[in-house]
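Usage

Read records sequentially. Each one opens with the input sequence:
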Amino acid sequence: MTYFPTVRARRAVALTGALAATLTLAACGSGDSGGGGGEPSGPPQSGGTLRYGLSSAPTCSDPAQSGTNQTIYVTRQIVDSLVDQDPASGALRPWLADTWNYTADAKSFTFHLKDGITFSDGTPLTADSVRKNFDSIVALGGVKAPLGASYLSGYVGSVALDPRTVRIEFSAPNAQFLQAVSTPQLGIQADATIGKSAEERCQGGNIGSGPFTYAEWKQNASATLAKRAGYQWGSGVFASQGEAHLDKIAFTVVPESGVRTGSLASGQLDAISDALPQDIKQIEGGGGRAQFTANPGVVFGLQPNVTRGPLRDPAVRTALLPAINRKELVETVLGPQFKPATGVLAANTPGYVDLSTRVTYDPDAAKKQFDQAGWVPGADGIRVKDGQRLSAAVLFSPVFAGNQAILELTQQQLKAVGFELRLEPVSVADSIVRQNNKDFDFAYYNTTRADGDILRATFAFDQRNLNVRPAGDNLDVLLTQQLATTDADARARLIGDAQRAVLDDGLWIPTIELSQAIGVGGKVAGVKFEASARLQFHDTWLQR
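and closes with the structure output:
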C-alpha cells in the first residue's frame, strides 16, 4: 500500500477514517470572504512585512506544545510536516515526504523523505531526525504535549532504514496516524531544538525546516518571523513552490477587539484575529475584508469534572443539554458566520453525526429532569437538594474573543432553569495549570482537528480526560476500537457511537461551533486557512 503524489489518496482516506462524503471538509480552509474590497489580483509580489494582530499571546514557541489557535498561527510557519492535508478535499499531499506506505493492520508506517531538505541551522533533515522528534514528543508526555502524545498512542519506536526512509511502529493499530502527521504538533524540528528541556523549547529558539524562522520572540508580547532563504520543499497544497513571498511577519498581541479593528482600518496592522461581527463594517469601511472558515473537531462546550459537587450526578449533567438555547447564543453574540452546536463534533469533522435532537432547546424538559433528580427551586430560584445549591463554576480563558459574552448568556439561560453557573475568567497560562491539576468544576474550550479521533484525545480515560472519569465504560471501548479500525465506514460508525456515548453521560455540554474569523487589509493577498482552520502564510503577499 503505497501513496504516490500522482494518485488520489484513497488508501490514506481509509486510515484517516473519513467517508468519501465526510472527507470533503465543507468550510475548512476555504477562507470565505464576508465581503469588503476583495484581495489584490495579479502575480504575487515579493517583499515586505505583514503586521498581524493576535487576540491573545502565544503560549509557547514550540509547535509540539502548541494548543491555542493564536499560538499555532505563529508556530505553524516555522515547521513542516511529513504530509499535508488538502483543506478542500481532505486528501493527504506530499510535504517533507514524497511517498509513504503502511501495513494493512495500520501498525507500521514508512515515509520516504524528499532529497535536500535542511533545517534553518543548515543541518540536514533525515530519517533519524523524524525518529528523534517522535521520541521527544513521547518523552514530553500528555501534560506538555497532549495532542502530539495522543497522536503517538501505542508508539513503539521509529527506525531509520536509510538516510531518507523512516518506519514508525505501533504496538496496536493506529488508524488516525496519517492524518496526525499533517499537524504542526508532529512537525519536525532540528536536533538543537529537541535536545532542550520542555521549558527551553518554549522560549523562541526553535529550529525547523519551514518557510519562516524565528527572528525574535518576546514571551506574552510579540513574535517576529523572517523568510527562510532557499526554501524549496513546500507542501503539495501550497499555491506556489519555493520561498515565501513575505520578508517578515510581525505578530503583536492586541487583546481589545476594538483596538485591533481600529488598527486594521487605519493601516497600522495588515491582518487581525477574531474579527467579530460588530467589527466587520469598520474593517470593510477601511478597504479590508473579513475571512471565515469553520473549525473541525470538538465544538465549544462545558466539560464537567464528574468528581465535583452536583456534577457527580449524570442526571444533572444531561439535564443541562436542553437548558441551553444555542441559536440565541449565535444570533445574540456572534452572527451568521457561526453555527449552533448540533452535537459533540463540528459538522465538517470526518465522522460527525447530527445529534441536534439531543441538544434541542427545551427548558421545560430540563426542569423536569432536575425535579426527577430531587433538585427543587430555592427561595432565589436556584435549585437545592439536601442543603446543597445546584451551582458550579466554569473555568475559561480568552482563547476566543466571544467566550465571555457567550458564557454570560449561557449563565442567564441556566439560571432560568434553576442552575447557577459562576464564571471564572483566567489567563491562558492559569487555565492550562488548573486544567492539568483538574482544579475546576467545568472547563470551557474547544479542540480543533480534522479527524474524529479528536474524541479520544479529549475523552479517553488514558488521555487528557478533563472529565476525571474512571476507566472501563463503553466510551473507552468505542474510542479504542475506532483507533484500531481501518475500514472507513466501520470507523465512522464507531466515532458516531462515541459521540452519542459522550452526550448520554453528559460529558460535554455543547454551545457553538467555532469559526476562525480574521480581518485582512486591502493590500494583502493569499492569507489561507489549512485543513484544521489555522493560518498558513507561505502564499501570502503584500501589494506594494
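Summary fields computed downstream for this record:
- The chain is about 25% helix and 25% strand.
- The chain has a mean pLDDT of 92.
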